[in-house]
Amino acid sequence: MRAIRVAAFGGIENLTLESNYPLPAVGKKEVLIKVSAAGVNPVETYIRSGMFALLPELPYTPGSDAAGVVQEVGSEVTRFKKGDRVCTVRTLTGSYAEYTTAEDKFVVHLSDKLSFAQGAAIGIPYYTAVKALQIRAKARSGERCLIHGASGAVGIAAIQFAKAMGLHVIGTAGTKEGMALVKNTGADLVFNHREDGYVKAIQDAIGGVDIILEMASHVNLQRDLDLVNTRGRVVVIGCRGNIEINPTSTMAKESCIMGVNLMEVTDEDFHEMHHVIRTGMEVGWLDPKVSKVYPLGEAKTAQHDVINNQGTTGKLVLDTTK
Ligand SMILES: NC(=O)c1ccc[n+]([C@@H]2O[C@H](COP(=O)([O-])OP(=O)(O)OC[C@H]3O[C@@H](n4cnc5c(N)ncnc54)[C@H](OP(=O)(O)O)[C@@H]3O)[C@@H](O)[C@H]2O)c1
Q1: How many angstroms is it from 239 CA to the middle of ligand 1?
Q2: Radius of gyration of the chain (CA)
Q3: Whose CA is nearest to atom 42 of ligand 1?
Q4: What DSSP string runs through 223-245?
Q5: Which domains occur in the chain, in start order?
Q6: Element (H or E) spanning 262, and its range?
Q7: How many whole angstroms from 214 Cα to the centroid of ligand 1?
Q8: What are the tens digits of pLDDT across the range 209-228?
């Protein structure tokens, strides 16, 4: 099969396409998926560069999010059969490939309403949104939620889930196109995080917010602490550097800064998150926005774009059939 392989940690030049890589073997509780599309996430660039807490053994195939069709199931798998449309948030052998394996507990059926590219956009973004809002922030219907960086993959997922939970959603993006996407995805109010004075504009429009999902905490954390309401929660999802904050801001309002980490998930968390994802597909609120699809051989460009993009409009995906 064709697969992207990484033999050494470093730059994007270390992503190489192999055309005769062997098919992975399937364990008892595993599913072999013929991958149609793989999600491209920022974390895969951190791992490839060797700058991540958990690194795979070299060489490896990148990627955790995939959508495709079940090719084979292990002897103890009962929920899936050959031919089922599925997607997964965690593979054993990497998703930037024509075939991948996943433990059956990390696989869900993919609704016929969604394309494979959309299925590949579910994994990390939607599970993170669900973990952040429901499991970490314990969001309640009627609360005001700022999604700081709403035009990207996690942001779009968070808008859809937050609206399904009955929250009032304020989203930000850095361009007109991103703002239009955020609005069309369901945000009640949209602001441009590259415009001077946008935080004041949010305050003028609605006062404060109860929850902030933060995609760029290295830029925004102090602003978030200024904006969040008494006993509000700032959920750190994205962080690419250090920032100085004044902790007094948290005392005055008894506000809380909490991290979210999709690598740190219990079986109970997964059970809860799968339930939300399945329901989202059935009810229809889960509707990933794919911005660009790259052939598998262009994984280098896709990883370059996912980390350097300014003016994000949804999810980047690899088409593993091309
Ligand atoms: N903690 C976890 O478990 C976890 C899980 C998933 C993702 N993440 C992290 O979360 C972040 C978002 O992931 P993603 O997949 O959604 O990435 P993405 O698709 O590239 O989206 C990035 C988002 O951040 C926005 N942004 C850029 N500069 C900003 C600023 N100064 N203030 C507010 N927003 C800004 C972008 O908007 P414009 O491009 O329009 O400016 C875009 O909406 C990444 O850093 C990723 O590594 C963490």
Answers
A1: 9
A2: 19
A3: 152
A4: HHHHHEEEEEEEEE----S----
A5: 3-122+288-319 (3.90.180.10), 125-259 (3.40.50.720)
A6: none
A7: 8
A8: 999 999 999 999 999 999 99
Mutate to test the pocket of ligand 1, among 49, 54, 215 (most ligand atoms within 8 A of CB): 215
Please give the Cα distance from 58 to 55 (Å, whole number): 9
Can you tell me which residue has the tokens 């969040």? 228
Helix (H) or strand (E) holding 45: helix 42-48
Residue 38 banded pLDDT, cuts 50, 70, 90: very high
178 lines ligand 1 (CB under 6 A): yes
Are the C-beta atoms of 145 and 213 separated by less than 8 Å? yes
Taking only the tens place, the pLDDT of each residue in 75-131 is 999 999 999 999 999 999 999 999 999 999 999 999 999 999 999 999 999 999 999
Q: Rounded CA gap, 199 and 180, in Å?
A: 19
